[in-house]
């Protein structure tokens, strides 16, 4: 009996070792970008430079920012639009599976193209997304603090070569359009991305919801596919 028991332990140990040696499954772009689902939608923004109270009062600005999904075959990415943006006119966020990181590409109001590499961490229940790039004489970064489903702050910082600390240059506070701070749980889920949805779409007499125009267009192109995936997900949750 004892030899059989020891043999069983050996087999279980070998199985555990083999499982541990298996590489982690790579996330698809759509799966990885769900980390940004809070940002999908339209935002009212107020920005200000870092400086004296007088500087902030004199040089503050307002703008609007819009995040949405885009899809092509198995690829997915996020688009960012700015209306009356002080610093940027457009941008997009992509996930690079081979490197397991994100990239942010922005177009400035001067039509310059700038790319950053991003990581995500959680500090005191707040999701922090940091996009960084090395310039000629300094390191630059954009930091997004996702404070709430309808409240975020993002800031621009620089660290000159030879220095250890970043200096904040400006910051923008943003509030999501059409939502109050008293939003509760139970809001519908986007049938395409899985994020929080706001817009109804229909298929075969049933109503589903999507979170942005990109997801709406993707759903309308392949409604049966997304309805099937969505219903399978609901069944899995009930088990």
How would you explain this protein's 3D organization?
- By secondary structure, the protein is α+β, with helices and mostly antiparallel strands.
- 24% of the residues lie in helices and 45% in strands.
- The strands form two sheets. The protein has a ten-stranded antiparallel beta barrel.
- Helix 4 crosses helix 5.
- The protein is globular.
- The two termini are 38 Å apart.
Which helices and strands appear, and what pairs or packs with what?
Elements (H helix, E strand, L loop, with lengths): L1 H20 L7 H5 L7 E9 L3 H7 L1 E12 L2 E9 L4 E9 L4 E8 L4 E11 L2 E9 L3 E11 L2 E10 L6 E10 L22 E5 L2 E5 L2 H9 L1 H16 L1
Antiparallel strand pairs: 1-2, 1-10, 2-3, 3-4, 4-5, 5-6, 6-7, 7-8, 8-9, 9-10, 11-12
Helix pairs in contact: 4-5
Brief write-up:
The chain is an alpha+beta fold.
Sheet/helix structural class: alpha+beta
- As a whole number of angstroms, the C-alpha radius of gyration is 22 Å
Number of domains: 2
Arithmetic mean of pLDDT: 87
Number of helices: 5
- Main sheet: which strands, in order across? 1-2-3-4-5-6-7-8-9-10
Give the oligomeric state of the chains in this entry, treating copies of one chain as homo and distinct chains as hetero: single chain
Topology, number of strands: 12
* CATH level 1 name of the largest domain: Mainly Beta
Relative helix content: 10-25%
């Amino acid at each position: 009996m004892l030899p059989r028991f020891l043999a069983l332990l050996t087999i279980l140990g070998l199985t555990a070792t083999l499982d541990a040696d298996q590489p982690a499954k790579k996330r698809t772009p759509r799966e990885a970008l769900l980390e940004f689902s809070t940002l999908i939608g339209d935002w009212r923004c107020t920005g200000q430079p870092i400086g004296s109270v007088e500087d902030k009062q004199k040089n503050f600005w307002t703008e609007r920012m819009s995040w949405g999904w885009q899809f092509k075959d198995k690829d997915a990415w996020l688009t960012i639009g700015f209306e009356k943006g002080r610093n940027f006119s457009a941008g997009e966020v992509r996930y690079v599976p081979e490197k397991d990181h994100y990239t942010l590409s922005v177009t400035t109001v001067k039509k310059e193209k700038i790319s950053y590499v991003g990581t995500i961490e959680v500090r005191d229940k707040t999701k922090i997304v940091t996009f960084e790039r090395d310039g000629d004489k300094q390191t630059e970064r954009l930091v997004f603090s996702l404070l709430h489903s309808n409240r975020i702050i993002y800031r621009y910082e620089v660290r000159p070569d030879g220095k250890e600390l970043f200096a904040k240059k400006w910051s923008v506070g943003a509030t999501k359009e059409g939502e109050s701070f008293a939003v509760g749980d139970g809001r519908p889920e986007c049938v395409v991305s899985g994020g929080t949805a706001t817009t109804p779409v229909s298929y075969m007499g049933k109503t589903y919801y999507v979170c942005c125009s990109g997801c709406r267009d993707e759903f309308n192109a392949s409604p049966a596919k997304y309805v099937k995936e969505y219903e399978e997900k609901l069944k899995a949750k009930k088990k």
